[in-house]
């Protein structure tokens, strides 16, 4: 039997997602949308394996081996360029706000309630995602997953890298058994228009604000939203309920120039308290005061400083870190794309 001479570039693999309508039903009716990816991580299948040697032998016997794939959470990671069509689906999924009602401005309320989805749930577009890691081989190699939720989404940009183009990294999880590890019938929208790119360079000085300080000269930023999922109730098809009950958190890191606007950040960090004025602790990165569709922007109405440190670059910079907190009325975070 001859060896195969075929070899494939790691860049030939595609990461496809689609909004899934019903829990437990892989979304085969809607065309998948390909994310503009730089890297696709190896999915963690996490099967339960028992490899203990039983009484009667010093060697693991074939009868001793046990494996179960139903009571396991699968995790998938991906990173790339935050093009609009893909980012819409990821933001919709992690915030729980439907794209149609969000009008491309996705928010998470300060008093958001726990949400649950599971066996029997229908009309779940935006709540669940179907995912395919499409192999270059094309047959018996595609990895398909259903009932996926986005648990972590990071959006970042650096003016020294790709001109401040917005990038993303995401983690998705599913508690259902894998749909298919040989699927090859998936069709996808693989086009990326230049108009789908978003840039941090579109933000104007008056609305480059961290912890109430505007007119910042920014080098880079990174914002992470986390919405953990809890899986419960094992059945023959995997976990039957997905709950979004843990803390939804949003954090933002920024590197800014050290100047007369930012020199007192150490004092602000050391003496900060729970202030009555939300505006004094606002973090906003946008092209204008109000977030708008078709323009990438971030608004975290009330934040607390969690770190201030020097960053010795060509000129002195500051690394700032904030975490969003609820103020009882405003959204915890809003993101426009």
In a few lines, what is going on in this structure?
The protein is mainly beta.
Describe the structure.
The chain has one domain (10-45, 68-182, 191-336). It has 3 helices and 23 strands. The protein has helices spanning 84-95, 99-102, 265-271; strands at residues 14-20, 32-34, 36-40, 48-50, 66-68, 74-81, 105-109, 115-118, 128-134, 142-158, 167-174, 180-183, 188-189, 208-209, 218-226, 230-235, 238-244, 249-257, 283-285, 297-300, 303-312, 316-324, 331-336. A hairpin with a 7-residue loop joins strand 9 (128-134) and strand 10 (142-158). The mean pLDDT is 91.
Number of domains: 1
SS-based class: mainly beta
First CA to last CA: what distance? Answer: 53 Å
Any idea what the shape is? globular
Helicity level, as a percent range? under 10%
Q: Count of DSSP helices? A: 3
Rg from C-alpha positions? 23 Å
Order of helices and strands: EEEEEEHHEEEEEEEEEEEEHEEEEE
How many β-strands, per DSSP? 23
Strand content: 35-45%
Sketch the major β-sheet: 13 strands, mixed
| Uncertain residue segments | none
- The chain-level mean pLDDT equals 91
